[in-house]
Amino acid sequence: MPENQWPMWEVFVRSARGLSHVHAGSLHAPDATMALRNARDLYTRRNEGTSVWVVPTSAVSTSDPDSKGGFFESPQGKNYRHATYYDKSEGVPHL
Fold first, then answer.
1. Domains of the chain: which residue ranges?
2. Range 8-83 classified under CATH 3.10.20.520
3. What 3-state class would DSSP assign to 62?
4. Tens digits of residue pLDDT in 71-90
5. Strand, helix or coil at 53?
6. Tell me: the pLDDT tens digits for 28-43?
7. pTM of the predicted model, to two decimals?
């Protein structure tokens, strides 16, 4: 990163209580405090947010989009990971 460029931050906004934070975008800022202020100004202008998270882009780990198949496919012989593998229990009303 060039010395004259501020670090990049990823911004996550929660629109209402009980909902998940959603990635809203990215921005440059010198520190976390300024990143939060800038994120508020850029991504919650119309009072659509209840919470904002900022994370340095360098702290985010991602999967490789080119290895999608091998990374996300369910391994053979691991059917127990899916609810359809199990039989419905008798006498349990909430299942």
1. 8-83
2. yes
3. coil
4. 777 666 666 666 666 667 77
5. strand
6. 999 999 999 999 999 9
7. 0.68
